[in-house]
Amino acid sequence: MEKTFRVRAFGRHISLPAVNATSAFSTFLFAMLYGIVEHTLLTSSLGVSILAYPLGVKLVYNLYFYHIIMFMLATLISFNPFLDVLLFRTSRALKKQALLWGTGNILNFVWLEDLFYWILFLEWPKDVMTPLNLSFYGIVWWYPVMLAASGVLYGMALRSIRRMKGPQVEPGM
Fold first, then answer.
1. How many CB atoms sit inside 10 A of residue 50's CB?
2. How do the residues of the chain divide into helix, strand and coil, expressed in percent and rounded to 5?
3. If you ran DSSP here, which 8-state letter would residue 44 be given?
4. Element containing residue 135 per DSSP (H, E)
5. Is residue 160 in a domain?
6. Residue numbers of the domain that contains 118
7. Mean pLDDT lowest among 22-31, 56-65, 90-99
8. pLDDT over threshold 60, residue 90
9. Number of domains in the chain
10. Residue 57 lies in a domain
11. Is 170 inside any structural domain?
12. How does DSSP classify residue 129?
């Protein structure tokens, strides 16, 4: 029997496979740690120059090579519980669920890391200081966009999971 994580949200009971819950939590935790590490590195007296070659190589705008490495780690963490499903012979429905959930994890990682960069240190957000990003009291416009997009992906994955399991009666209802 598959282990599930049960939660009541929006007036409904939601059963979530434990692997999905733990992958979302590990993505959240990694985004927080990434924000802490990035803040600590970039606010040091040496700034970005503290990064050794090739991590300190500036690629485009404010994108450095260390961003690519950390994004690869985030992708591994987001999709790790689902790699066996994605890489080996399984049904299309399972692959779709894994892809939707992992992509939702990545989208959440991107905005959460940026948010944790400043919120954990009670500082003004870094993106407000760049002309390309507009914010409202520290909430950059693309935070809710990414949250909504990941919510849609999670919802699609949950709907697919429910379809595979079929109708189930909740105890006590």
1. 13
2. 60, 10, 25
3. S
4. strand 135-136
5. yes
6. 4-165
7. 56-65
8. yes
9. 1
10. yes
11. no
12. G
